[in-house]
Amino acid sequence: MDDQSFLARRLDRAAAPLAVGDVLVLMAMLTAGTLSHRPTEFLANEPTYLLGVWAPFLIGWFLVAPLVGAYAAGAVETAKSSVPLVVRSWIPAAAVGFVLRAVVFRGGVAPTFVAVILAIGAIALGGWRALYFRVR
């Protein structure tokens, strides 16, 4: 019998670089999206605005990604295993982010926004992971 908890089996220390990269990619994607709708002067005058943009999706990510296996041993083996895991993690993590954004944080969840965030997030995270395995 395995004495490791479910979560312990889902977290591999070797996945730490992937975790850091995933968070940076999500923050960059959300920042780029925000900058496409808000002028930089607005963000300069509202320095905490981006925290409210990042928070719901990062909370969703931290809650869901480990459970789905984005940082399990299989995630650090090859791009072929890692990319599908990160995409499968993104979809429910983003759903949590949308709920938090609608209920707790500022911002809407218009269908177009949902579609764009789901697609761009999957492409950005999958692309980052594919690049990671290509250059490591």
Automatic annotation (TrEMBL):
Coiled coil ranges: none
Residues annotated as transmembrane: 14-33, 53-73, 85-104, 110-132
Domain of life: Archaea
Pfam families linked: DUF3054
InterPro entries per record: DUF3054
Keywords on record: Membrane, Transmembrane, Transmembrane helix
UniProt-recorded name of the protein: DUF3054 domain-containing protein
Lineage: Archaea, Methanobacteriati, Methanobacteriota, Stenosarchaea group, Halobacteria
